[in-house]
Amino acid sequence: MKNIRVIPRIDIKGPNLVKGIHLEGLRVLGKPEDFARYYYEHGADELIYMDIVASLYGRNSLRDIIEKTAREIFIPFTVGGGIRTLEDIRAILRAGADKVSVNTAAIKDANMIREAARKFGSSTIVISIEAIKEPDGRYLAYTDCGREHTGIEIVAWAKKVEDLGAGEIFLTSVDKDGTGEGYDIELIRRVSETVSIPVIAYGGAGNCEDIVNVIKDGKADAVSMSSVLHYGVIGNKALDESSFQSEGNITYLKSGKVFSKIEPHTIESIKNSLKASGIMCRH
User: Fold this and answer.
1) The pLDDT of residue 29
2) Which is catalytic among the residues 88, 130, 181, 221?
3) What is the predicted pLDDT for the residue at 226?
4) Which of 58, 110, 206, 260 is most buried per CB count within 10 Å?
5) Could you tell me the pTM of the whole model?
6) DSSP string spanning 46-114?
7) Is residue 283 part of a domain?
8) 282 lies in a domain?
9) Phi, psi (5° rounding) for residue 193?
């Protein structure tokens, strides 16, 4: 049995790490580089950076963060948001990222996946899929943080991106994101059973049981989470409070509150829970 990867997701807006619900209503939580360093030092297998508003504004502004991360953190990290061209991919990889995550540009021109895989290698190309469950039970792909409807059915799209050469799929349930209600097991399982490339599950983790379930029942190859880790870091005051003092919206941080459905965890506690459930992971 392969090792399951535990991958913190770091959503970025401007210079800030942010977190929302359904990829909207973003709260400032601190400096992304501080959280990234903390996760690296405490056992993360990889990191995923997402410029959460990049596609909306037609740009990716993470170059400085990427270069700093590459100097200080020695685990693989993926960068996504606003990647439109092969030149964008080249620039991000040259800055130090190990992989790139593409959503909107791939949906607009699926051939980009084939060209990127040929030029940079399949292992560097991650296709991000934002899924919303429709009233009729279908899962459709969306772009721009779930704002833009594409009409593309998720399972067929996942199979197509595999056939075009993508190395991994980063599968987000927009419905579940930030809710702490657990991953969308049905969504993850449908895609995982369709493709042979790794599927990274994201959206909805509220506790360790949710993470165990998406691996066992959803058949995910890797798990990504944000709220359960970010609020754990903040609750434990693991970062210097000066990390947030220059930010405008820190009222939520100072309140000490978390969502009632989210149980803050560390990477160590998550991995201990996986091992106790018979799931292999790097420890």
Assistant:
1) 84
2) 130
3) 94
4) 206
5) 0.91
6) -EEEEETTHHHHT----HHHHHHHHHH--S-EEEESS--SHHHHHHHHHHT-SEEEESHHHHH-THHHH
7) no
8) no
9) -80, -15
- Please state at what angle helix 185-194 crosses helix 208-216, rounded to 10 degrees: 30
Is residue 281 one of the residues assigned to a domain? Answer: no
Q: How many domains does the chain have?
A: 1
Give the CATH number, domain containing residue 200.
3.20.20.70
- State which H helix or E strand residue 131 sits in: strand 125-133
The CA distance from 157 to 162, in Å, is 9
Copy the structure tokens of residue 73.
């953190």
In a domain, 233, yes or no: yes
Annotated catalytic residue within 11, 34, 88, 181:
11
Q: Which has more confidence, 57 or 20?
A: 20
Residue 72 bears catalytic tag: no
Structural domain of residue 169, as residue ranges? 5-276
Residue 130 a catalytic site member: yes
**pLDDT value for 248:** 46
Q: Is 253 helix (H, G, I), strand (E, B) or coil?
A: helix
CB atoms within 10 A of CB 74: 9
Per-residue pLDDT reduced to its tens digit, 56-98? 444 556 777 888 888 999 999 999 988 999 999 999 999 999 9
**What is the 8-class DSSP label of residue 217?**
T
